[in-house]
Amino acid sequence: MSDLNNDIRLVVDTGKISFGSKSTVRAMSENTALAIIIAGKGKNEIITDITHLCSISKMKLIKFDGNPVELGALCGKPYSVNALAIMDPGSSNILKEEYGV
User: Fold this and answer.
1) Helix axes 21-29, 44-57, angle to 10 degrees
2) Contact at 8 Å (CB) between 99 and 62?
3) pLDDT averaged over the chain?
4) Residue-range domains of the chain with CATH
5) How many Å apart are CA 64 and CA 101, to the nearest integer?
6) Is the pLDDT of residue 77 over 80?
7) Alpha-carbon Rg of the chain, whole angstroms?
8) I want to staple 16 with a disulfide (CB 3.0 to 4.6 A). Which of 7, 24, 37, 87 is the partner?
């Protein structure tokens, strides 16, 4: 089992992602997202909405065990990130790994 933090960082550095809950929902509705990462300790309504949309669309959902500020810092952003959509995993194996939801 791979380390989620390393895989997220690798996706940010080598892949294509979209930051933020609105951009994530937009990427899901346009079918451009391959997987979704949410901050597990983020806003409950955002977590609930995105989790529901992932279950309807059968899209892979990865829960980051931290708050949005920690997820933003991991991604190298100076702001909090509640959710992000992965459009291209780059050189990461994040789509193949199981992290336990």
Assistant:
1) 10
2) yes
3) 91
4) 4-85 (3.30.1330.30)
5) 9
6) yes
7) 12
8) 87
Strand order in the sheet with 60-64: 16-19, 83-88, 35-39, 60-64
Q: Report the distance separating Cα 65 and Cα 40, nearest Å.
A: 5
Q: For residue 78, count CB atoms less than 10 angstroms from its CB and return exposed for 0-12, middle for 13-18, buried for 19 or more.
A: exposed
> How many other CB atoms are found less than 10 A from the CB of residue 18?
19
pTM of the model: 0.90
Can you tell me which residue has the tokens 């509640």? Answer: 82
pLDDT in tens, 30-62: 999 999 999 988 788 988 999 999 999 999 999
